[in-house]
Amino acid sequence: MSMINDFEQAVTKLRKRLTERETRRQLQRLDQKENVSKNGEEDSDVVPWSWVFTRLLVLLGQYPSGLTEAIVNAELEMQWDECSSEVRRGVSKLTLSDPGSRRSIDMYLHQKFCFLADECAGGFLEKVRITGTRSVTTPVGGTRLLPTEHMVFLLSESDDQDKKFLSDRFDESLSHVAAADVEEGRSFAFLVKVHQIGTVHAARSHGRLKRLHVYVNDTSVEENACLVLWDEQIGLASLFRKGDWLAIWRPYVTVERQAGRDDTRSITLEYGSQTVIFVIPMDPTKEMELMCSMASQPSQHAVPRDARGILDFKWYPRRLLVTELAPKMINITIFGKVLEVIANMPFENEGIKVSRYGIRLTDESGYCDITLWDDIGQTATATAFVGDWLLLEGLATTERVARGQPGKLVKKRFDVFGKVELGTKAWNVSSSTGFLCSPFLRNILRVSAALAEKRHNFYCRAVISNWAEGKCGRTTISIHPRCNRPVETTDEAVLYCPFCAHFIEDYKLTYTLRFVLDDATGCCEVDVGLGVAEDILAVTPSEYVRLDLDEQREVLGAIIGKEIEGSIVRVYDQKDQTTSFRLTAACVSGSCVQSTKALIQNLNG
Question: How far apart are CA 43 and CA 294, in angstroms?
Fold first, then answer.
């Protein structure tokens, strides 16, 4: 059964064009035109595959009526120019000892940092970032900066002294934090990566006005720890960014076990009077150099690895397959077909239900189960159905942990998961009308050829020759607006969503129909996907149910003979072991084709 799809072929074509353009520009900057590859193959790994795919889907989402090839190329070129220039430019805040500058300023060092000058011979005071300070004029007319607690010290993974300092002092992991150690007043030192910087909220704490959460992790635990900054401390968040590593020395630590989950704890870090933060900045320049160097590695690509062994796949050049996943990876992008959508398996945390959904995704290499937490879980599964093609960005994997029951063989494995704090996003590529309505991105296949080749997905141009009620024996059903799954009514007349596993207040109607599509070379019976029937009928489900039976039949009868272009996916029901097809997106042609003869002439033309 062919896994070939128009989605990947379109991305490959766009990526190749961008890469060739970027390669020419880089070589022009380096004045190395004599090294330009004659066939372009050696330089095929400059622009990341995942970057092209995600930007394309965002663009098509903004223009669902479709785009031309010229517009897409121009837009991607502009976005890549902005992205790559930012990567080359890097980030710099404030350097107190800059050999390249003749200007300098003295600063009083806050007493909490004095031990660094004594213990480390001042090595860590050469490059810092500060906020929340002010300058004063000295008696001799000079200028100095007043002491401030709001300072971070910059380290580099390429510096031997810095690496030794990190390995000697920051060898603890979040998974080893015990409540008993916290109660005994033990001091901690963690090396963690910034996954997300939140927004400022009201403090909701006595004596404090504002708070900001910085979500960090060392991948030894599945749940992110939360670094809380209060009031003036919030300025510290401007001294690092998502993707940087923080070596946090002596933070205040609190540990709370999540209700209903004995194996899961919530860890909170606070910036206290003895806390010192060292920042190991993500080096965008090296990432760009790494991307360019990957072109000469045909089979195995170097991936940035930090001191903790975390592999960052943000700029990985090629498509990452399921079987290539490994423990302790971040910024993963996976593209595949949905085998199963797992309903919410909630648990309670301090009396509040936390949602947990799952998706089983497959590609040509294998399959994996992905856990999606809270909002992104509901958002991703709301539009994902078996057979759909899904792109998931911003996933991560845990470290390898032992799994098994007492007395049985223990197998070590790792989990793949996504959550909002990681920047996880999901796109249903199959249902993209922008893709369908952009002719240069997809190929129209004859139905007979698509069925003979057993395509997992295909695009066709066909006439609706018949319609029927859905599998439930009705033309409309009630669904939960958040997850788009059928709802139930209890004996007490209360609405309940089995998929989300909680009671709901409202519902919406959707069509449940089957169409027979005929392109004169073959016929295909399809279940009509979410929202597709409404686009074809031009009547909303709520309007439809208010019509009498004859009027409803008239509305449905009017679609017979309509020509549409549609996106179709093959659906395999593992329970019944049957195969069916679903129409995931459609656009109605400008005119209705009322006869097979006219359709044949159109195909032959």
Answer: 8
> Which DSSP letter does residue 99 get?
T
Task: Specify the DSSP class assigned to residue 294.
Answer: G
Contact 11, 73 (CB under 8 A): no
What is residue 173's predicted lDDT score, i.e. its pLDDT?
A: 84
Q: Give 576's Cβ-side CA count (13 Å radius).
A: 6
CA–CA separation, 476 and 479 (whole Å): 10
Pairing of strands 143-145, 106-107: parallel
Residue 459: helix, strand or coil by DSSP? strand
Strands 578-588 and 523-528: parallel
Element housing 329 (H / E): strand 329-330
Q: Quick one: tokens of 137?
A: 């004029």
DSSP code, position 437: T
**pTM across the whole model:** 0.65
Range 475-479, long-range pairs (CB < 8 A, 24+ positions): 475/511, 475/512, 475/513, 475/544, 475/552, 475/556, 476/509, 476/510, 476/511, 476/512, 476/541, 476/544, 476/545, 477/509, 477/510, 477/512, 478/507, 478/508, 478/509, 479/507, 479/508, 479/509, 479/510
Res 293: pLDDT: 38
Cα(first)–Cα(last) distance of the chain, in Å?
Answer: 30
Report whether 80 contacts 18 (CB < 8 A). yes
CA distance 582 to 512: 11
Reading the block at residue 337, the tokens are 């077909």
CA distance 290 to 330: 17
3-state secondary structure of 462: strand
Apex 293 CA angle, 290 and 295, nearest 5: 125
Q: Where are the domains of the chain?
A: 6-88+285-428, 106-280, 443-475+512-604
How many Å apart are CA 224 and CA 520, to the nearest integer? 56
Q: What is the CATH number of domain 106-280?
A: 2.40.50.140
Q: Which CATH number fits domain 443-475+512-604: 2.40.50.140, 3.40.50.2300, 3.40.640.10, 3.30.470.20?
A: 2.40.50.140
- Cα–Cα distance, 306 to 124 (Å, whole number): 20
C-alpha to C-alpha distances, 407 to 400, 401, 403, 404, 410, nearest whole angstrom: 20, 17, 12, 9, 9
Strand residue runs (E) in 422-456: 425-428
Q: Which residue type, as a one-letter code, is found at position 502?
A: H
- Ordered mean pLDDT values, 10 residues apiece, the chain (605 residues): 74 92 71 43 66 95 93 93 60 41 66 67 67 67 74 84 83 83 86 89 82 86 85 90 90 77 74 91 52 36 63 87 92 96 86 88 94 93 95 92 59 85 93 94 94 93 95 92 93 92 93 96 95 93 94 94 95 88 89 39 47
- Phi and psi of 374, rounded to 5°? 50, -130
- The CATH architecture that domain 6-88+285-428 belongs to is Beta Barrel (2.40)
β strands within 180-251, DSSP E:
189-197, 201-202, 210-217, 225-230, 245-249
Contact residues for 279 (Cβ-Cβ < 8 A; gap 6+): 129, 152, 153, 154, 155, 239, 240, 244, 245, 246, 247
